[in-house]
Specification:
alpha/beta; seven-stranded parallel beta sheet; 17 helices; 15% strand; elongated; disordered N terminus
C-alpha cells in the first residue's frame, strides 16, 4: 500500500465513530528508523508495506504518542503524523521540499492571503511583540495568563527571561533567551526551576513538553514551506537573488519582521512551516499550567491562541501551520497527562498550586476585597471568547459535512481539574457538545483532536442530549454556554447558569444552590425545587411548570421576577432580596396552588408580606 493511499484512508477514516483501522501498526522504530529527518519526505515518504498478517488496528494517540520521534516519519509509524493527516486533503508532499502540490486551492490560497494581509498591516507594537514571543521561552510567555497569580508564580518558581524588549532593527547576531545576570540564584528560563518552591508545577510543564512533544517529525513529513518562501498559490519560486544577509529571495508577498530576519532557517528541507513549533509549545505549556491552575484555564487557553497568532504576524507561519501546531499540542498534552508515569506528578503539581501559589497570590496581589490589583492581560472574558473564536479556524473555507463528533480517547483529562466534580464520561460529553462542527479539512483529521474547543468546554455542557445528574463541589461554578438538547438536569451543590438555554428535559435541584443569571437559564422544561436554594438574580421565565416541594426560592423584589407559563405548586421558603416601596407581583403563573411555609426578607430592616391569587404572588415589604 502506498503512502498516499494510506494518508487518503487516514483522512477518510476521520469520519468514523470508532478508532480507525486503516493503518498498519508498525513498530515505532520500523523500516523508517534509520531515515534522517527530512529524507523520507524528499523520497515521497515511501515505505515498503508490511504483510497483511502484520496489519492491526491503530492505537489511540494517547497510547501511541511516544512514537513521535524523528526516526518515524510516516502515518504508519508516527501517531503525530497520523493525527495531522487532515493536511493531506490540502497538500501533497513532493519529492523535494519545494515540489509539493496544492490539493485544495481555495483553502491554501485563503491561508496565504491571510498571512500577506497581516504582515502588510502589522503595527510597530505588533512587530516588537512578534520578536519577543519568537525569542522568549514559550513556557515563560504563557505565565502572563496566570493574571493575578503571575508575579507570585515567577517569584516562587524562579522563572526568568532575558527577552523583554525588541531591538529597533535587525540585530547583528541571533538572539536566544537566557538567565539574566541579576536573577536570583537557581533561576531558570521557561516555567522556572524544578527545585523551586513550585518545582512540581515546573516539572509538569517540562514533562508535557517532553521528548515526544516535538513538531519536527511532522514538519519533516509534510514539508509545507514557511510562508515567506511561497507565493499565493503555495508555490516556491526562487528568484536567484540573495538578500543583504545572504538568504535566498523567494517570490513571496509575505514579509518577516526585520528583527527576526537572522532567525530564519538556513536549510529549507529541515525548516518546514507545518505544524508551527512555537504554537505547539505555547499550547503545551498552557495546557500543562491549566491542569495545575484550572482557575485560569480559559485565560491560559486564550493566551495560547494569542501568542500563537504572533507567529503569523511575524511572517514565520501561516494559519494552517498554527492550527496544526494547536492540534498536535492538544493531543500531546492529553497523552502526557494520561500517561500513568505522570500520575503522581500531575497530582503533586495541582496540590502545590493550592498550598503554595494561591495563598501567596491572594496576600501579595489582591486587595482586602479580593479584587486583583495585578495586571491581567486576559481579564476580559468576552474579549477572550472573541479572540479564540476567530482563531479556531482563521476563517479558512469550510466544506459541507455533518459528521458526528467523536471525542478522542483520553481527551477528558484536559478538563480533569476544571470539572473535578464531573465523571470522565461527563467530561467527554462536555467536550463533545462544545466541539466545532465538521467540514474543516485540517480539523477533521483522525480522532478529531482539531475539533475540540477547550475554551467553550470550560463553560460547561453545550447540550444535554441525555439526562445529566451531577453534584457540584463546594466551590461555586458558572456555566456560560447556551445549553440545548432533550435531556434534563438534576443537580446538587453550588453553581450558576448564565446561558440562553433551551434544553427541554427540565431541571431538578436536590440540594445546594443554583443561581440563574439569564431569563432562560433553566431551559424550556418543568422546574422542580426538591431542596437547596434556587437564586433568581435576573427576571426568570419558565416555559413549563414550577414545583417547589421544599427548599428556598430567592427572588428580587421586582415585578415578574419569576414568570411561569405553566402551573406553580408552592411550599418551602420564599426569600426576597432588595427593597420595594409598593406591592410587587413577584411571581405569575398559569395557576398558583399551595403557599410558602415561610416568607422572609434578606434585608432585615423589612418584614415581608405575601398575598396569593390563583395566578400571582404579590409582595409587600414593611419597614420594621
Amino acid at each position: 500500500m502506498s503512502r498516499r493511499t494510506l494518508l487518503r484512508a487516514a483522512v477518510a477514516a476521520a469520519a468514523a465513530p470508532a478508532l480507525p483501522q486503516f493503518l498498519t501498526a508498525a513498530p515505532a522504530n520500523a523500516a523508517s528508523s534509520t531515515t534522517a529527518p527530512g529524507a523520507a519526505a524528499q523520497a515521497g515518504m515511501t515505505q515498503a508495506a508490511p504483510s497483511r498478517a502484520a496489519q492491526t488496528a491503530v492505537n489511540a494517540f494517547v497510547t501511541d504518542y511516544q512514537t513521535n520521534v524523528t526516526a518515524n516519519l510516516t502515518v504508519e509509524t508516527n501517531a503525530a503524523v497520523r493525527i495531522l493527516s487532515g493536511m493531506q486533503r490540502l497538500w501533497h508532499t513532493g519529492t523535494t521540499w519545494d515540489s509539493g502540490t496544492v490539493l485544495d486551492p481555495a483553502v491554501l490560497r485563503a491561508n496565504m492571503r491571510y498571512v500577506v494581509r497581516v504582515t502588510r498591516s502589522r503595527t510597530p507594537a505588533q512587530t516588537a511583540r512578534a520578536f519577543i514571543q519568537d525569542r522568549q521561552h514559550q513556557s515563560y510567555a504563557v505565565i502572563s495568563a496566570l493574571g493575578p497569580y503571575a508575579d507570585a508564580y515567577k517569584e516562587k518558581a524562579l522563572a526568568v527571561t532575558s527577552i523583554t524588549t525588541a531591538p529597533e532593527s535587525t540585530p547583528p547576531t541571533t538572539i536566544s533567551d537566557a538567565v539574566p545576570a541579576d536573577a536570583p540564584a537557581g533561576s531558570a528560563v521557561g516555567a522556572g526551576s524544578p527545585t523551586s518552591a513550585l518545582g512540581q508545577v515546573v516539572s509538569l510543564v517540562n514533562t508535557v513538553r517532553g521528548p515526544f512533544a516535538s513538531g519536527n517529525p511532522s514538519k519533516a513529513a509534510y514539508q509545507y514551506p514557511r510562508p515567506w518562501r511561497m507565493n499565493e498559490d503555495s508555490e516556491v519560486v526562487d528568484t536567484g537573488v540573495l538578500d543583504a544577509l545572504g538568504y535566498p529571495v523567494y517570490d513571496s508577498e509575505v514579509t518577516v519582521v526585520p528583527q527576526l530576519l537572522r532567525q530564519r532557517g538556513l536549510a529549507p528541507a529541515d525548516d518546514g512551516g507545518f505544524p508551527s513549533g512555537h504554537t505547539n509549545a505555547f499550547h503545551l505549556a498552557a495546557l500543562a499550567f491549566a491542569y495545575a491552575v484550572p482557575e485560569r484555564l480559559q485565560e491560559l487557553v486564550t493566551a495560547a491562541f494569542d501568542l500563537s497568532d504572533t507567529r503569523i504576524i511575524a511572517g514565520m507561519h501561516s494559519p494552517a501551520d498554527v492550527i496544526g501546531g494547536r492540534i498536535l499540542a492538544t493531543a500531546l498534552a492529553a497523552a502526557a497527562l494520561n500517561d500513568p508515569a505522570n500520575a503522581t506528578l500531575k497530582t503533586d503539581a495541582r496540590n502545590q498550586i493550592k498550598t503554595t501559589l494561591l495563598p501567596a497570590a491572594l496576600t501579595s496581589a489582591t486587595t482586602t476585597s479580593g479584587q486583583s490589583t495585578a495586571t491581567d492581560p486576559y481579564a476580559d472574558r468576552s474579549a477572550n471568547k472573541r479572540l479564540v473564536a476567530a482563531k479556531l479556524t482563521y476563517g479558512l473555507p469550510r466544506r459541507h459535512a455533518s459528521t458526528p463528533m467523536t471525542v478522542p480517547q483520553g481527551a477528558e483529562v484536559l478538563l480533569e481539574t476544571r470539572f473535578a466534580y464531573l465523571t470522565a464520561d461527563q467530561r467527554r460529553e462536555v467536550l463533545r457538545t462544545t466541539a466545532l462542527p465538521a467540514g474543516y479539512p485540517l480539523l477533521d483529521g483522525p480522532e478529531n483532536w482539531g475539533r475540540l474547543n477547550l475554551f467553550a468546554a470550560a463553560d460547561g455542557y453545550g447540550a444535554f442530549d441525555h439526562d445529566v445528574d451531577l453534584h457540584l463541589d463546594a466551590t461555586s461554578d458558572t456555566w456560560h454556554n447556551d445549553i440545548t438538547g432533550r435531556g434534563a438536569l438534576t443537580k446538587s451543590g453550588t453553581g450558576t447558569l448564565t446561558g440562553a438555554n433551551t434544553y427541554r428535559g427540565g431541571t431538578t435541584l436536590k440540594a445546594g444552590a443554583l443561581i440563574t443569571a439569564a431569563p432562560s437559564a433553566l431551559g424550556t422544561g418543568d422546574v422542580t425545587l426538591a431542596g437547596g436554594t434556587l437564586h433568581v438574580t435576573e427576571a426568570l421565565r419558565l416555559r413549563g411548570r414550577y414545583r417547589q416541594r421544599s427548599g428556598v426560592l430567592t427572588l428580587p423584589a421586582e415585578t415578574r421576577a419569576l414568570t411561569i407559563a405553566g402551573e406553580a405548586t408552592l411550599a418551602g421558603t420564599l426569600e426576597i432580596t432588595g427593597r420595594s416601596t409598593r406591592p410587587q407581583t413577584v411571581l405569575t403563573a398559569h395557576r398558583v396552588t399551595g403557599r410558602f411555609t415561610q416568607v422572609t426578607a434578606i434585608d432585615t430592616a423589612y418584614r415581608a408580606e405575601v398575598t396569593y391569587t390563583r395566578t400571582a404572588v404579590t409582595l409587600r415589604l414593611h419597614k420594621r
